[in-house]
Design a protein that fits this description.
The chain is an all-alpha fold. Helix content is about 90%, strand content about 0%. The protein contains three helices and no strands.
């Protein structure tokens, strides 16, 4: 009888081990999947931080232009100031607010995916890539803007 108990115990243990391994595989896959989503969330949090910094920079740039505008006497210089100020207005008034709104909406959608309210992860990733492309493009444009601004102001100082 002892051998049948050993067999029965062995059967239970092997079943439990198999069950545990299946759970481990499912948990590991879920963990890896969530880690990928968490990395995307981390990126979107970084975007929010960058947008906030860009807004501060633009406020400073506007003050810099205002403080130096009276030093400009040429038509070309006044045209450059107008161009730089128009870009500030566009960036502050439209583009950065649009980015912030898109990122907040994106973060809310991710939260619904993580909580299981939504299941279309692929759509989230596509939207993430679109936002990433727009922000990367803006970074390049903003870098060019800053170079133009700094060169212009350095001529006035």
């Amino acid at each position: 009888m002892e051998s049948s108990n050993t067999f029965f115990y062995s059967k239970i243990c092997s079943t439990n081990v198999s069950f545990t391994m299946e759970n481990l595989k499912a948990t590991t896959t879920e963990f890896l999947l969530r880690e990928g989503l968490m990395d995307l969330h981390k990126t979107s949090k970084q975007w929010v931080s960058e947008v906030d910094l860009w807004k501060l920079e633009l406020e400073f740039f506007q003050k810099l232009l205002d403080a130096n505008a009276r030093k400009v006497t040429t038509y070309k210089g006044k045209k450059t100031i107008g161009h730089l100020q128009n870009l500030i207005t566009y960036y502050q008034g439209e583009l950065l607010d649009e980015f912030a709104k898109a990122v907040r909406k994106h973060q809310k959608y991710l939260n619904r995916i993580i909580t299981g309210e939504e299941s279309d992860e692929e759509s989230y990733r596509v939207k993430h890539d679109i936002i990433d492309d727009k922000i990367t493009s803006f970074k390049d444009s903003f870098k060019s803007y800053k170079i133009e601004l700094f060169e212009f102001i350095s001529e006035l100082i």
